[in-house]
Amino acid sequence: MASQKATRIALFSLATPPMRAFHLTWMAFFVCFFAWFACAPLMPVIKGEFGLSLAQVANINIAAVAITILVRLIVGPLCDRYGPRKTYTGLLLLGAIPVLGVAASQSYESFLFFRLGIGAVGASFVITQYHTSVMFAPRVVGTANAAAAGWGNAGGGAAQALMPLLLGAVLMLGVSESLGWRVALLVPGVLMLVMAVLYWRYTQDCPEGNYSDLRAAGTAIEGGKKGGWDSFKAASTNYRVWLLFVTYGACFGIEIFIHNIAAVYYVDHFGLSLKSAGLAAGSFGLLALFARALGGWMSDKLALRGNLNSRVTLLFMLMIGEGVGLLWFAKVDSVTWAVIAMLVFGLFTHMACGATYALVPFIDSKALGGVAGIIGAGGNVGAVAAGFLMKGTGDIRQTLIILSALVVISALCAIAVRFTRAAAEPNMAAA
Asked: Is the CB of residue 120 less than 8 Å from the CB of residue 95?
């Protein structure tokens, strides 16, 4: 099967199944992330309408990422069993329901309920990484994974920047602010339905075709060989999976947390307007357009010159940079320096995410769905933990300072992933 995987990324081509999957999976991921974080930049308005306390805002942020933990654990093995095409299409269709439903919220409780449901679309990341992992060969899989995830991740930044502008456009039509944010939130739900149709129509599970057809023909499937539950069990017994679970919580978990609190932080601490705060917060997410891909690309290049442990060392260094940068962001008092510090630590954060998933295809290729799902869930566990930490401290700045120390400590888990020479060299030969 590996021989039919793409050995290069023909970026401007849609002629092959790997490249169609590459482009459609990052587009689907972009739409899902846009929908996932569409509420965040509007929270200052929603906070005022429902009279929310900081604790209630923290509950909403926790709800937005909590259910994703469970769904990420499920969709990885589902990809092994049913294939990424069916799994992604189903997630897009079902995920659109709470995305559209949140616009109908009339109270804190109903908003919290739908925000919890929206969190499920965050599991799109696992399917994205699974699909590119089965489509691309080891030589370029790190770059393919990181680029698809990075461009998709940019949907979070786009939501931060565009949702306030969309709300402004709706208000210019004479709609009240109370109705305006609801109308604005309908847009990502509709986009998800459109994307579901495109994904079903134009992708296939792997270079050879769809899993159901291959199984019917008696063809062995590498990524989905063990099926759902067996894939999860195999992955859960691998200690490297749990080490990366922690590191991903310390990089992607922080990324999600910043997406959820950045707009409120800039408004409350620096007195920015909703639009200015959205643009500042959006710049963090838009780093994903290149930074995550850069992390994966560097991982691939270092691995070709060294071995699999070169990927591990890179991840360790990036996480140290993330922790130091996060502390800088928490300490500055000038809005200008806050934005600069956020971009610096954001660069390390996104690159660390890319470097993490550049390692994923090499952990256990026969349980790829389980590996991708568990590690992906780690990101949301990190975000939930950060949410509870903020709820406990009652102060965003203090929370950021504590998180910076935890990130540096988590870097030790990254270095502990190291492989023996015997394990590292065969993987490089496969490239």
From this structure: yes
Residue with tokens 């994923």: 360
CA nearest neighbour of 350 among 258, 285, 406, 403: 285
Gyration radius from the chain CA atoms: 20
pTM: 0.82
Report the SS3 class of residue 136: strand
**Which residues, 6+ apart, have CB-to-CB distance to 356 below 8 Å?**
244, 247, 248, 251, 252, 315, 375
Which pLDDT value is given to residue 57?
86
Query: Tokens at residue 249, please?
Result: 């919580």
What is the pLDDT, as a whole number, of residue 61? 84
Give the model confidence (pLDDT) of 131-166 as tens digits: 999 999 988 999 999 999 989 988 988 998 899 999
Distance CA 129, CA 141 (A): 10
* Per-residue pLDDT at 428: 47
- Cα distances from 411 to residues 309, 343, 346, 425, in angstroms, run 15, 20, 16, 24
Question: What is the rounded distance in angstroms from the CA atom of residue 79 to the CA atom of residue 228?
Answer: 8
